[in-house]
Each structure stands twice: as structure tokens, then as C-alpha cells.
């Protein structure tokens, strides 16, 4: 069926700080098939964005470095690839869409120019060809009258339009993998619905695999095939989107899903208090190296959680959890 | 909820003149009423004027026209010391806990500021009150000496809430109080807001773009679009039977876990973009994006009409029985 | 009144309060060049204050043969063209130079911050008028204006300081205005407004402390500029004839630079080192007060 596109094994990233070297990512392993959508969820500071940056070789240097593990894109290890090779990979094989569409577009060039520039950086094409390709892309991402819009500057477009342009830039080289880091967080809900829909349509059309980083449980549920939950720089649960929503095994996953109010259409809805995850994500500097990092906030905590750190264990087909005392019956 | 009206806004307009002579119609004829102990939600997307409405109610932006009655007094007529005295009845919880606390003041001083300004009680009594407020919002009184940068986002928001409660206000304006917080922290703050409302009989004017959060907190909800309220109703009326096409689109756009793997289906699609608030359309402001709009919708603006109970909607296509005609 | 049971974990100890000022001082201390600059400035100030009492040779008296090179007599730095002791000149001149530098910077900061604060806080017409005034001062030919002021009124220390202050406050005003406009929109200012804080409090107690970091950096650099400006005026002979200053030493000894280079190079080096030290301190302050700009 689908082929293995990306395979990340035991990825570790360390950062040099004033207090010495700290591990921001530990033992992150996951697989991604072509055409698949993987959702990465977790609170801020859990390592979601760092994972994405590692994939495209954009860990902030010189403070951060890959300390361990491999990033295999179709068999090629990007963790040890040269800067030159990574530049080829970026935009061509892997591209990225960021949260803030205002700051990720260059304000002094027209959007058409920015799309053609991306093409020219990777292919030997005439400017006439790249321009017509740029207009094609604008049409593809649903921008009305693309010939006119191509000549406009980012500030002349609305937030939703700008994000569409970003997606056009990301997809123009037909990457195998698109990484979207909170792509709709800065957008209004009706615009978000359109952008997500666009992602889905494009993904079906082009077969691009997507890594979608988000904190919105609803977005993950609607978009992702598989979900990876991260906490304190580690993967705590992976599984299908269905497992994630209906059968979460890790208390953190369970907490994430039940702490968000859900829209209910029932007129007699009287909300019960939301389930809280007490406390905050630990700062990685203060993280104790013994025991489960989530233990201090966990309602399922047992003695073992404080003494030994659980590792990711397969509990069912394509469903793995790192927990000593997982949720038995979730709902 | 009692019948006493805390806040009544009548035909409020807030217009901002631009340098080139044009005028932004940020809020254009908004009326609503808040009863004691109620949580009133104002929802809408960016540019709908919900935050401006809230700031006008706290007299932090200048109203162009209309009346705002706080406990029966039109605060737009007040000035100087009279207005200062009224301010203790309204307090605000801001969106961004990183911007709403003065980084150079200690947490205790921040919470105590309203008491100092209003000269409530003796200094020792104020100190006691601040310690009490810390406990009420789930912080420890020993943390008073710390500076804002020593707290997490959720704790900072708790400090902001403690400050808002200091003068025992009756009306608390919550301007997107959880949208800058992490999901797990949102639940803590929402539950806290609900507890406080119950314990102190607070009245909330709750601004949010998140329909699920508004449903969780609020009793009555008004949906705003381009400076106007287009639908208003109790929680069960609005979510159980949304009438306005825009409300429907808004509700259906919320991604939900029930819609597993179906991002491309099940959402009402809106055409185009909201028109500019500088020259809003003459007729129904939503008509250009509405799939039910007739030519007549573009000619005359619909009025907010009562359907049943609290439920009111501004749409030509909805008849008095709440049916689409 | 009912209390709400709190879910927070009480076993975590409360950390020491760390004020933003203390944080900045920690960062500043880690900046070695800035600390060296600060030490040098401290040394200069100390010598200027107590030096004249310990080394009582008058800088105006002829004490030895003119043009004595350093090390050739009991006056270790030698003498100038009038046989005046150069060391005494540096010690006494430092006093004047530093005083003028600090006073002029203080005047510039006071005017600049006040004008900028009102312009930035009130905006609108107030801003328009104040900014036109600022522009007027900005387009004045600095040196010429200062010379005219000093010549019209007598060239006393205070007049010189005022002249320098008046021509150098405009940058401060523009920066203050910008910072005020930024901080004015912060939610904590809105929060103060919403509880009825008065404008005077908002300007001086809420906005100014938060607008201060970049202003402090510029104020530090203004001291260096004022020292250079004073040296320039003295060099042109526009200094108090009764006092010695570093700039005046250079000016006096200028005609004899070929025979007696140390008469010019010694005060010149001291001015250079002092201004460099001020810049280093300014740089350290910038890193300490605007930590986000670090690690670039």
C-alpha cells in the first residue's frame, strides 16, 4: 500500500544554556507513511515544535544540537546530512507552514514573486514558467482572481489569504512531507475551517504526507490519521486518531481531551466542571531524571512512577503508551 | 440570577476616525442588558467589535453615541471623580497575562493597587485582603513578594483575576481570559471563573471567539458580526436552535472530536471575506457571504427581532416563528 | 465570605523574589568588558573627587621648566608649554570634565524624557506641538548654537553644561516618545486606567519605569557624548578660563604638538579611555536590560 516516508529513531536534542546542557527532546521515535497525516499534540514546551525544526535541520545553532538518533527520510539520514544537502531537502522534499502568516511572508515582495522565488531556488526554470506556476498554485489554494492577487503585497491580503499563500509556497515544489506548525491558531474559526478543508483536499490531490502540530484536540481529530502525544520532550502515547479520541491510555492524553469544553448542540446541556490537569509543564532545567515526568500532575500516580521512568510500550496494534498505570476504561 | 439589571447598553456606537478622514465603524448600534449574577457572552470573529464593546463599557475607549447604564447611572455622562468612583464596580480580566501585569511591581502590590487607589480600608486591612485574594484564586499568600516573571502563564492570569476581584466589583469584564493560555491551564482558569461567579455572585461580560468556551461559561450569548449583534439568546436557545445563517456557520466551523477524520465535510462554508468596517454595506452586513441572501437583504438592514423568550435574531429570512422563509 | 479550596501543591517552596533590576544587575556583572569600563569610570571619578586633596600641586602654577617630558622630573607626567604640571592638570581637569559630562547629560535626559513622555502619553495635538519643537532643536547646528550660548553668557561650568544639554536632548525625546507609545498600549496600563489611576501616576510610576531600559542605555551614552562635546568646546577655547579641563589642556598645548606631544596625547588618551569606558558600560546595560537582543 503506502510506503514508509519518514522514520525517526531515538531522536535526542540538547540545548546549551547558562545552567549547562539540557535535553529538550529524548528518545523520540515515530514513523510516517506517504500520504499520511500525523498529528503531534501537547502543551507548549513539550517539544512539538522542536521535533519539527529537527526534521528540517533548523534547530537554533550554535546552542542546540542533535545529540542522538536518526532521521531517515526515504532511507537518508538527515541528522548527519550536510548544511548544503539540508538546503536542498528544505522546500524540495520537506516544507513547513508556520503559525503566524504575517511574519513569515516577506513584506517587500509580491506574493507571486515569493512563490516563483521558491521554485527558482530549487529548479532551473525560466521566470515565465515560474510565474505561471505561481498563479496555478494560487488558484489551487483557492485564492480568487489569482492573476491579480499574484501582484499584491502581503499586507494587502487578509490573514486567511496570507496563510493560503504560505501553503502555496510550501507546496509549490511538491514536497513529500509538509510540516504545519499550528497553521490555524492565529486564524478565525470560519477561516480555520476553510484552511483545514484546503489541507485535506490538497493532501488527497497530491499525496503529500502532513505532520500537523497543534494544541487543538478538535483539529487533530478531524485531520489526523495518527496522533502522537508529547510531554516534557518525550512521546507518551501514539496511536490512531480513533484511539486518541475514544481510547486514550495515558492519563495526560486523557486529561488533554477532557479539559477542553466541547460544543454541545443539546438545548438542555448543563456543563459539569471541566477535568483539570493540575500544575504546569515542568521546566526542562528542573526536570528530575528519575521517574515519570508527568507523575507530579498525574491522577493515576503509583509508587513506581516516582522511581522509574516508563518507556513507550506497544499495547495494541499501532497503539503505544509510556505509562506504568494507564487508564483502564477511558470513558 | 436576580432581576436587578447591572449593565444596560443602549444603541452603543464606537467609531474611530482615521487620518485620511474615513471612519471605522467598530461598534455600530449595539444594545444588550445584563442581569445580576448572569454571565453574558459576546462572541464573534476578529473585527466583530466584541472587544471594543467591552472596553467601551469600562470607559477605556470613547463611545461615539449611545448610553451605558451601570447600576442605573449612565456612565457616559460621568466624568472626573464621579467616574473614578464608579470604576470600582467594573473590573477587567485581560487576555494576555504577560502584558496585563506590570513587570516591575510585586504580585502583592499589583493585586493591592485597586484598593490603594480607591483608599479602601487601612493599610493593614488592605494587606490582609490581598492575602485573602491570593488564597481565593488558588495562589499562596507567600507568593506576594514575587515579581510577575516568576509566575507561569496560568498563575499570572490568577493574579489578574485577584486584582479584578479586589474592590469587590459587581461586573467583571473578561476579555478573552483564556485564549492566551495552554489547553490544560484553560480548564483551571475556566473552572476558577465559574467557582468565583457562584461564590461571590459575580456578573460576567465574557468576550471570546471560542464558541465552546462561551457555552461552558455563559447563560446568555450575543453573536456579533461587523459591529452589530446579529443574534442573541440563552445558551439553550442559541446552541440548540441557532437561527442566523452566520451563527450556524460559526457553530459548524468549530472542529470537534465527533467529526473524526472529516475536516473536509460537515462544515458550512462561507463565501468571501467580511466587508470593511470603514464602509459597511447598507443592507444586511452578512448578505454578501450568506447563501440564503435575497436581493432585498442587500437593500435594507434587518432589525433584531424577538422570536421567543430571550431569543432575538436580525435576519430578513427568519420569520417570527423562527422559520426560514 | 466563603473560601475556595485551592488545588495548588503547597509543598513547593516559594522562591526568592527576583526584581527585574536585580536580574539586570546579574546579567551586567557577567559582561566583563562592561565591568572593566565601570571599574575605570569608578577610578576616574574617585581620582577626580579625592585627587586634588591628595595631590595638591596647582594645575595653573608654573612649577618646573616648560616642555619637561614625563619621567624627567619630580612631576612624573612632565609639564606643558607654561611649565604647568600635567598630572595636576589631568586630576583637576577630570573633575570639571566629569561634572560637565554628568550635568549636561542630566539636563538632556530631563528635558528629553519630559518632552518625550508628554508627547508619547497624550499623543494628538500635544504630540504634534512637542515634536515640532523637537525638530526645531534637531536642525540647529549643534556646535554653533552651543558656542553662541557660551559666548553670550559667560563660559562658566553651568552655562557650558546647559548649552550642551540643550543641544543634545532631542534623541532622548524621540526615543522616550516611542517607548511611551509602546508601553501606553500595554494591558497593565489599561488595568491601571480601569481602576481610576490618574495621568501623573500613569506617566511617572507606571509607564516610565517600563520605558526606562533603552532610555538608561542612551542616557549612559549621552554622558560620553557630553564629555566629547565639552572637550570640543574647550579645545576651541570656549571654557571657563579659571578652570582646567581635559579639552582645554589639548587646546592649550595644540600649537606645540611637535615639540611637546605628551601635552596633547595624555589628556587625549584619558578622554578616549573615559568615553570608551562609558560606551562599554552602555553596551553592558543594553545587554542586561534588553536580554532578548542577546545571543545574536
Automatic annotation (TrEMBL), chain A:
Signal peptide: none annotated. It is found in: Cell inner membrane. It comes from the Bacteria. GO terms for molecular function: ATP binding; ATP hydrolysis activity. Gene3D superfamilies: P-loop containing nucleotide triphosphate hydrolases (3.40.50.300). PROSITE patterns: ABC_TRANSPORTER_1 (PS00211), ABC_TRANSPORTER_2 (PS50893). Transmembrane segments: none annotated. This is ABC transporter ATP-binding protein. Keywords: ATP-binding, Cell membrane, Membrane, Nucleotide-binding, Transport. Its main location: membrane. GO terms for biological process: peptide transport; transmembrane transport. Belongs to the ABC transporter superfamily. It is a peripheral membrane protein. Residues 8-257 form the ABC transporter domain.
TrEMBL record, chain B:
The keyword ATP-binding applies. Residues 7-251 form the ABC transporter domain. Pfam families: ABC_tran (PF00005), oligo_HPY (PF08352). GO terms for molecular function: ATP binding; ATP hydrolysis activity. It comes from the Bacteria. It is a peripheral membrane protein. It is found in: Cell inner membrane. GO terms for biological process: peptide transport; transmembrane transport. Its main location: membrane. Keywords: ATP-binding, Nucleotide-binding, Transport. InterPro entries: AAA+_ATPase (IPR003593), ABC_transp_ATP-bind (IPR050319), ABC_transporter-like_ATP-bd (IPR003439), ABC_transporter-like_CS (IPR017871), Oligopep_ABC_C (IPR013563), P-loop_NTPase (IPR027417). GO terms for cellular component: plasma membrane. Belongs to the ABC transporter superfamily. This is ATP-binding cassette domain-containing protein.
Amino acid at each position: 500500500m503506502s510506503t514508509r516516508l519518514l522514520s525517526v529513531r531515538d531522536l535526542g536534542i540538547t540545548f546549551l544554556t547558562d545552567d549547562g546542557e539540557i535535553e529538550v527532546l529524548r528518545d523520540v521515535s515515530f514513523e510516517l507513511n506517504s500520504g499520511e497525516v500525523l498529528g503531534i499534540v501537547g502543551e507548549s514546551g513539550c517539544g512539538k515544535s522542536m521535533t519539527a525544526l529537527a526534521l528540517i535541520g533548523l534547530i537554533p545553532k550554535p546552542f542546540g544540537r542533535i545529540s542522538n538518533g536518526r532521521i531517515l527520510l526515504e532511507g537518508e539520514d538527515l541528522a548527519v546530512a550536510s548544511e548544503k544537502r539540508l538546503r536542498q531537502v528544505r522546500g524540495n522534499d520537506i516544507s513547513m507552514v508556520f503559525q503566524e502568516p504575517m511574519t513569515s511572508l516577506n513584506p517587500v515582495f509580491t506574493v507571486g514573486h515569493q512563490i516563483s522565488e521558491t521554485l527558482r531556488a530549487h529548479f532551473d526554470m525560466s521566470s515565465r514558467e515560474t510565474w505561471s506556476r505561481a498563479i496555478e498554485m494560487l488558484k489551487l489554494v483557492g485564492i480568487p482572481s489569482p492573476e491579480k492577487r499574484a501582484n499584491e503585497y502581503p499586507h494587502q491580503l487578509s490573514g486567511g489569504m496570507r496563510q493560503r499563500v504560505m501553503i502555496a509556497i510550501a507546496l509549490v515544489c511538491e514536497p513529500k512531507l509538509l510540516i504545519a506548525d499550528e497553521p490555524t491558531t492565529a486564524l478565525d474559526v470560519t477561516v480555520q475551517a476553510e484552511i483545514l478543508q484546503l489541507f485535506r483536499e490538497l493532501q488527497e490531490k497530491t499525496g503529500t504526507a502532513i505532520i500537523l502540530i497543534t494544541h487543538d484536540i478538535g483539529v487533530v481529530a478531524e485531520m489526523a490519521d495518527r496522533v502522537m502525544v508529547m510531554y516534557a520532550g518525550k512521546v507518551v502515547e501514539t496511536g490512531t486518531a480513533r484511539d486518541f479520541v475514544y481510547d486514550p491510555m495515558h492519563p495526560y492524553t486523557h486529561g488533554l481531551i477532557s479539559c477542553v469544553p466541547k460544543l454541545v448542540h443539546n438545548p438542555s446541556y448543563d456543563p459539569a466542571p471541566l477535568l483539570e490537569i493540575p500544575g504546569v509543564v515542568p521546566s526542562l532545567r528542573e526536570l528530575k531524571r528519575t521517574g515519570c515526568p508527568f507523575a507530579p500532575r498525574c491522577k493515576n500516580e503509583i509508587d513506581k512512577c516516582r522511581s522509574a521512568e516508563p518507556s513507550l510500550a506497544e499495547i495494541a496494534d499501532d497503539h503505544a503508551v509510556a505509562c506504568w498505570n494507564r487508564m483502564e476504561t477511558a470513558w | 440570577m436576580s432581576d436587578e439589571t447591572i449593565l444596560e447598553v443602549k444603541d452603543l456606537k464606537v467609531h474611530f476616525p482615521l487620518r485620511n478622514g474615513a471612519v471605522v465603524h467598530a461598534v455600530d448600534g449595539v444594545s444588550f442588558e445584563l442581569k445580576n449574577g448572569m454571565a453574558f457572552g459576546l462572541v464573534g470573529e476578529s473585527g466583530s467589535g466584541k472587544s471594543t464593546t467591552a472596553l467601551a463599557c469600562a470607559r477605556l475607549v470613547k463611545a461615539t453615541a449611545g448610553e451605558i447604564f451601570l447600576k442605573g447611572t449612565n456612565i457616559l455622562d460621568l466624568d472626573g471623580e464621579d467616574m473614578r468612583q464608579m470604576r470600582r464596580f467594573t473590573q477587567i480580566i485581560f487576555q494576555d497575562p504577560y502584558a496585563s501585569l506590570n513587570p516591575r511591581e510585586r504580585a502583592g502590590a499589583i493585586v493591592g493597587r485597586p484598593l490603594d487607589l480607591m483608599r479602601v480600608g487601612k493599610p493593614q486591612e488592605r494587606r490582609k485582603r490581598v492575602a485573602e485574594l491570593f488564597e481565593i484564586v488558588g495562589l499562596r499568600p507567600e507568593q506576594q513578594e514575587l515579581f510577575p516573571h516568576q509566575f507561569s502563564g496560568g498563575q499570572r492570569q490568577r493574579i489578574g483575576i485577584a486584582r479584578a476581584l479586589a474592590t469587590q466589583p459587581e461586573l467583571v469584564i473578561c476579555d478573552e481570559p483564556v485564549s492566551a493560555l495552554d489547553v490544560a491551564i484553560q480548564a483551571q482558569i475556566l473552572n476558577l471563573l465559574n467557582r468565583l461567579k457562584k461564590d461571590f455572585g459575580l456578573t460576567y461580560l465574557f468576550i471570546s471567539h471560542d464558541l465552546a468556551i462561551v457555552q461552558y461559561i455563559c447563560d446568555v450569548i450575543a453573536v456579533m458580526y461587523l459591529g452589530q449583534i446579529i443574534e442573541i439568546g440563552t445558551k439553550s436557545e442559541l446552541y440548540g436552535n441557532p437561527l442566523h445563517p452566520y451563527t450556524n456557520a460559526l457553530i459548524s466551523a468549530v472542529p470537534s472530536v465527533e467529526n473524526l477524520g472529516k475536516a473536509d465535510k460537515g462544515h458550512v462554508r462561507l463565501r468571501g471575506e467580511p466587508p470593511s468596517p470603514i464602509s459597511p454595506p447598507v443592507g444586511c452586513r452578512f448578505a454578501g457571504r450568506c447563501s440564503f441572501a435575497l436581493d432585498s437583504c442587500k437593500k435594507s438592514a434587518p432589525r433584531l427581532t424577538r422570536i421567543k423568550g430571550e431569543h432575538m435574531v436580525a435576519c430578513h429570512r427568519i420569520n417570527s416563528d423562527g422559520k426560514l422563509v | 465570605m466563603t473560601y475556595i479550596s485551592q488545588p495548588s501543591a503547597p509543598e513547593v517552596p516559594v522562591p526568592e523574589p527576583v526584581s527585574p533590576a536585580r536580574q539586570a544587575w546579574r546579567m551586567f556583572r557577567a559582561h566583563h568588558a562592561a565591568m572593566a569600563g565601570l571599574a575605570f569610570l569608578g577610578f576616574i571619578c574617585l581620582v577626580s573627587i579625592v585627587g586634588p586633596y591628595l595631590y595638591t600641586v596647582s594645575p595653573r602654577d608654573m612649577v618646573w621648566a616648560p616642555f619637561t617630558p614625563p619621567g624627567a622630573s619630580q612631576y612624573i607626567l612632565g609639564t606643558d608649554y607654561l611649565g604647568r604640571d600635567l598630572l595636576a592638570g589631568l586630576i583637576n581637569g577630570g573633575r570639571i570634565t566629569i561634572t560637565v559630562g554628568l550635568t549636561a547629560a542630566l539636563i538632556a535626559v530631563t528635558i528629553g524624557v519630559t518632552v518625550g513622555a508628554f508627547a508619547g502619553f497624550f499623543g494628538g495635538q500635544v504630540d504634534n506641538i512637542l515634536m515640532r519643537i523637537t525638530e526645531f532643536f534637531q536642525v540647529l547646528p549643534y556646535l554653533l548654537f552651543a558656542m553662541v550660548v557660551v559666548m553670550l553668557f559667560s563660559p562658566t561650568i553651568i552655562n557650558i553644561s546647559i548649552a550642551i544639554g540643550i543641544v543634545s536632548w532631542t534623541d532622548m525625546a524621540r526615543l522616550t516618545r516611542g517607548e511611551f507609545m509602546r508601553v501606553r498600549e500595554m494591558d497593565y496600563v489599561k488595568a491601571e486606567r480601569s481602576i481610576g489611576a490618574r495621568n501623573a501616576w500613569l506617566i511617572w510610576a507606571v509607564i516610565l519605569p517600563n520605558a526606562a531600559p533603552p532610555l538608561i542605555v542612551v542616557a549612559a551614552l549621552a554622558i560620553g557624548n557630553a564629555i566629547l562635546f565639552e572637550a570640543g568646546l574647550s579645545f576651541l577655547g570656549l571654557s571657563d578660563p579659571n578652570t582646567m579641563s581635559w579639552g582645554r589642556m589639548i587646546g592649550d598645548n595644540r600649537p606645540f604638538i611637535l615639540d611637546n606631544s605628551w601635552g596633547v596625547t595624555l589628556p587625549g588618551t584619558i578622554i578616549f579611555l573615559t568615553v570608551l569606558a562609558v560606551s562599554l558600560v552602555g553596551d553592558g546595560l543594553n545587554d542586561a536590560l534588553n536580554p532578548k537582543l542577546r545571543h545574536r
